[in-house]
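Model it.
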Amino acid sequence: MKKIFNNCIRAVKIRPLCAICIFIIISALILEKNPIKNEKQIMYQPDANNIFTLAQIKEWDNVTLVGKVSAMDRDNLCVVLKAVETRDGEMLTLPYQSISVYLSDSYEIYMGQRIRVKGRLVYHKRATNPGEFSHYEYNRARGNLFKLYEAEVEKTGRDYAVIRQRLYEVRCLGEKRIEEKLSPENAGIIKAMLFGNKGDIDVYTKELFQKSGVAHILAISGLHISFLAMGLFKLL
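Modeled.
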């Protein structure tokens, strides 16, 4: 045991990154053994027809929610909130689940910022015919519970995720430069390859990629991650 301990100390001295890896592994094990408990009431029920079962809120009712911004578009008209709570502080969703919010106007908000929004509740539609695409099941698999339409931002917090916000700004700047240099059709393809934004690809181009069997090029796949991993490996 003493020999193993001495070897670990020697490895940390020779390779400082080993100390970081060991710290991360130990922290992960501790968190797995002792997860952070949320004492607030969980109101979301996956198999219930009404997500607000305890609150008795119906579709298109006005609701006020508080959550952290985890994603947004360039015009700040659509944001995704995580760790959402009701106005009185009751937890609405689990931390890894999200809610799409469609804003009525553009607001100055940032990634990781806590905001309070008020809008009209809309549930994802279930499939009514056999074989039909189900927006409910698709969004539920992604952890997206429902949508808020015509939403207004009532209050914003001061703190936000600086690094995530800077990365978001770099992404927006890159997309803007691509749009300036390329045609709309080519710009949509390049943005999908580099940033995973497939919203600007027209239907005809998508069908061409699907029929030719190379639609995976438009997604952030293992090939993209392997390039990043190789560069990180060389750097370390």
